[in-house]
Specification:
By secondary structure, this protein is an alpha/beta fold. The chain is built from 16 helices and 13 strands. Bound molecules: pyridoxal-5'-phosphate.
């Protein structure tokens, strides 16, 4: 991994960036590696506060507002912000030269690095802006005919449901809605709910890996295997699972997968990727306009026009930062943080949760309801009286407040949250 980056840096120098720029770029990178190597030699657990306080120092988050809506979008560690700035400044020296002739050369090594982290083949991964772009590409690019069925749930993300509803309105495909009740703590309950809607006409099953409204982890592998048995393909919305849960795409049974890297990976805003299983690439129509739309080269989905090169290339630094923590350690910490505040909050009989405490069914995200308070009252009181930023959630049987810590959230932060929730519940 590090070698790939060093190679990329060497390539950049070889391409003749001004000496000052390449020199300082390389020196900065070396410093980061030294820090990461030191941190790697620790062997902390999910509740080793010395380590996690060091992680907090790597961020530049507000000291006056406590951000507990990391489920919306996450901040970037300083190394990622710095990389973005460097690439931005470099691009501004001569945009078309540095962006198209120099930086663009790094896309293939970035694709490799991302594919390695994602656990898929390099030839199956498209770098793009976000989950919405990834999933809309599949939803609108998949050849379907009138009467073909697609199975999805009301708990899927609005952008995706709207895209499917558009296909239903324009082409007469049929949407079959799965009925779910939160929280789910039994794989079979989820599998059975999907089973009820899958028929011989089902062409695709759409599953959200981690449901944004409640943090519910869905047993995607089991649902995917049921879908495949019934002859349907599987599209997984991984907006909240990538770099949060520890998994490999190749283990999920997905034909298609999309994610946003500005959530759990803490990469620059407006970065994401799409995965398409190799043998499915040819049949998906690209949303943009490559010369050969029926090609089986994954790069046909990257005819995106001018995009943010600084954001894209700083994904590399976000991956390094994530690897320094480690996927498993990160998941364990995130789950620990959620458990820490939620278990204590639930000691108050007025507080109810829509999220399971079981590690198989939840990670960092949880949603709660405070009896006698509307969701907006709680969100507003948390912000106005305690400077804690959260968000409200309202769908099906879920009506409450979503709270999402991240790796830079400390135990002191969560102690303040618990006090605030109890005060509001009084
Ligand atoms: C489950 C889910 N899917 C998709 C998205 C869309 O992500 P983006 O706005 O990065 O495209 C979100 C955003 O929160 C989400 O929670």
């Amino acid at each position: 991994m590090i070698n790939t980056r060093r190679k990329f840096l060497k390539n950049i120098s070889a391409f003749g960036l001004g000496l000052g720029v390449s020199g300082s770029l390389a020196a900065h990178e070396e410093r980061n590696f030294e820090l990461f190597d030191k941190l790697k030699s620790f062997n902390p657990t999910e509740n080793d506060e010395t380590f996690w306080n060091l992680i907090k120092q790597a961020y530049t988050t507000s000291s006056s507002i406590m951000n507990l809506n990391n489920g919306g979008v996450s901040p970037q560690p300083k190394v990622v912000q710095d990389a973005f700035e460097r690439y931005n400044q470099l691009s501004n020296e001569a945009p078309s030269y540095y962006m198209w002739r120099i930086l663009d050369k790094g896309r293939e090594s970035l694709r490799q690095k991302l594919a390695q982290l994602a656990g898929c083949d390099t030839e199956e991964l498209v770098i793009n802006r976000n989950t919405t772009e990834a999933l809309a590409t599949i939803i609108f690019g998949l050849p379907l005919q009138k009467g073909d069925e697609v199975v999805l749930s009301q708990f899927d993300y609005p952008n995706m449901k709207q895209a499917w509803l558009q296909r239903e309105a324009r082409e007469g495909i049929k949407l079959k809605w799965v009925d779910l009740k939160m929280p789910i703590e039994d794989d079979q309950v989820a599998v059975d709910a999907y089973k009820k809607q899958i028929t011989s006409k089902t062409k695709l099953v759409h599953i959200t890996h981690v449901i944004n409204w409640t943090g519910q982890i869905m047993p995607v592998k089991k649902i995917a295997s049921l879908a495949h048995e019934m002859g349907a393909e599987v599209l997984i919305d991984g907006a909240h699972s990538f770099a949060h849960l520890n998994f490999k795409i190749s283990d999920l049974g997905a034909d298609y997968f999309g994610t946003s890297l500005h959530k759990w990976l803490c990469a620059p805003f407006g970065t994401g990727f799409m995965y398409i299983k190799k043998e499915k690439i040819e049949k998906i129509w690209p949303a943009f306009s490559p010369p050969e739309p029926k090609s089986n080269d994954i790069r046909k989905f990257e005819a995106q026009g001018t995009r943010s090169f600084p954001a894209e290339y700083a994904i590399g630094q976000a991956i390094d930062f994530h690897l320094m923590i480690g996927s498993e350690r990160k998941f364990q910490r995130l789950h620990f943080l959620k458990d820490y505040w939620l278990k204590q909050a639930l000691e108050n009989p007025k507080i109810k949760s829509f999220t399971s405490l079981n590690k198989d069914y939840s990670g960092a995200i949880a949603s709660i309801k405070i009896e006698g308070k509307t969701r907006n009252e709680v969100v507003n009181q948390l912000m106005n009286e305690f400077q804690i930023h959260t968000t409200n959630v309202n769908i099906e049987n879920v009506d409450g407040v979503r709270i999402t810590p991240h790796v830079y959230t400390t135990i002191e932060d969560l102690n303040k949250l618990i006090l605030a929730l109890n005060k509001i519940a009084e």
